[in-house]
Specification:
Layout (H helix, E strand, L loop, with lengths): L8 E10 L5 E9 L7 E8 L8 H13 L3 E6 L16 H16 L3 E10 L1 H10 L6 E7 L12 E2 L2 E2 L2 H13 L5 H4 L3 H11 L3 H6 L6 H4 L14 E6 L5 H10 L4 E6 L17 H13 L12 E6 L11 E6 L8 E8 L2 E4 L11 E3 L26 H4 L3 E4 L7 E5 L2 E8 L5 E9 L5 E10 L18 E6 L3 E5 L4 E7 L15 E13 L23 E5 L2 E9 L4 E9 L1 E5 L4 E14 L2 E17 L2 E13 L3 E12 L2 E13 L4
Parallel strand pairs: 3-4, 3-5, 5-6, 6-9, 9-10, 10-11
Antiparallel strand pairs: 1-2, 2-4, 7-8, 11-12, 13-14, 13-24, 15-24, 16-23, 17-22, 18-21, 18-24, 19-20, 19-23, 25-28, 26-27, 27-29, 28-29, 29-30, 30-31, 31-32, 32-33
Length: 670
Amino acid sequence: MNDGHATEVTVIENSWIPMPDGCRLAAKIWLPADATDHPVPAILEYIPYRKRDFKAVRDSEVHGFFARHGYAGVRVDLRGSGDSDGVLHDEYLPQELADGVEVIRWIAAQPWCNGRVGMIGISWGGFNGLQIAALQPPELQAVITVCSSDDRYTDDVHYMGGCLLTDNLSWASVMLSYNACPPDPAIVGERWRDLWFQRLEESGLWLKTWLEHQRRDAFWQHASVCEDFKAIRCPVFAVSGWADGYCNTVFRLIHHLDVPRKGLVGPWGHKYPHMGGPGPSIDFLGECVRWWDRWLKDIDNGVDAEPMLRAWMQDSVSPISDDRPGRWVAEDEWPSRRLQTRVYGLTPGRLEPGGDNVVTNAPPLEIRSPLSVGMFAGKWCSYSESTDLPTDQRLEDGGSLCFDTQPLEEAVEILGQPVVELELSADQPQAMVTVRLSDIGSEGTVTLVTYGLLNLSHRGGHARPEPVRPGERYRVSVRLNHVAQRFPAGNRIRLAISSSYWPLAWPSPVPVTLTLHPGGRLLLPSRPLREADADLHDLGVQRVALGPTTTLLVPAHREWTVLFNLATNEATLQVIDNDGQWRLDELGLTIGYDVTERYRYANDDYATLRGEVVNSRSFERGDWHVVVATRTQLTSTPTHFHLDATVDAYEDDVRIFSRTWNESVPRDNI
């Protein structure tokens, strides 16, 4: 739905923001038409995703909306991205954060700004809002952080529970592709080619850097605001979705920050909530304006009197459904003192209520999962496409140890972080355990609710891993992702445990047999009903500003295919995620983006594991035609990760640059 607000908007297509070292950052600005005569607060989004082309439509819808509601919307390309000068060498480096502080100072000093600035962003932009807030620039007075993390090791695209995520490969490939793109000659002029070659030659292979830090060391501690929550002194609105990879952050922020704060978690994936699915989208930009009105305009609109947490309580649903029915619930504080811990004991095949009825003389249970467990898990961080959500978990449960409740006599609702305590041993020094919590419907289908991973070498923490002593028993806790879920009466709750989860996470060096000993428990954060939930204010329906007109030339194409070749015993998960090709009509600029990911193994042999991502981006206007193509491949041996990557750049169908990497990184207790 388009926003019908009457305020007229002036758009500045490009403005240069000077940095102290002479570098210039490129900004696009949306202003209320009278902002020069009547200065307004400004909202900054500071990301590397190219304001001129790939994010042009989305940026106009968001920042145009803010401008129509009395704010200056400012979209800045990071140093080395889009039309900005320089080279981008990695995520969240000190230079990037220092630049961000300078950008805020520049914005506050402009004649159309009254000196008050907020930051908004999803993913990278959400990280930057938190990280720059921790640097305490006085002009920054409120933040909205969406799908981001306070801890770059435990809750980001790279590692989970000390296990290597294959999204680490996928995301590194995305950024390799972005970093190979040129600035637009229409903005930077004749120097566009020199800037392009500088990026191609100097940006580097980020995947190798991330693989060189397999434990939580100083590399990940940098810019992780959980190291000092008290450094953040401005109000924070934290947002995520249950299908997103970053929902845990919302709960830690509202728990640990000592500033006005609010949390919102819906059913969505990794998108702004006005664009998001599965489940209903909301008038998120309207909610943002309410937040800005309170903290940047000092309007007493009651935002700070609302519950600290608002979450979508998901109903039971078919595992092949793209819908997420449910209702909004709220808690006034977090952790909520209203929550109770519901305990189940693990006995052979069963979850027994109470946890005190564990049969201590029950025989140990063993599991050595096939590599196929995980092929139907969906993506660590869903982008809300029907292709990347998990499907019926019966396809996974055959290679897992499963523990089920009896059919529930009454509905059970949970909100928070489930925890599984296990007494286990392993037959190898490097091992991992995956725990999945599912809802078994009355017809027998199994829908994934949440899950957790633990690298057993990290059982004592992520900073100093220690190998497992084969055969020795350990008591470990596996923390699952936060969730809100209603299990209706008649359904059953299932806990499934496996020794691998490929390709969501890279497996251990060699196959592992896990032995579960008696004494395991499942702890669920049970939530009693709250009558006040019926009075929560309506979050509305999507509103955005009008974006630029576009012409679709090649439609998007999404597929998520699992192929088992019984002739060769090879299994392949192929992901096609093509955005297609479209023209920004006003600019006469045609852009395109295609990506294919493949994850393979053969004969259940760990030596055959292979992940590969191929990206292509294209730009065309008049006689300017540029294509960048990248390919990244990751394999492993018991001792090393091996990565191969290429970047090829074409101008007018002639390859004018090519670079290849062949690198090896030792495995570090992973």
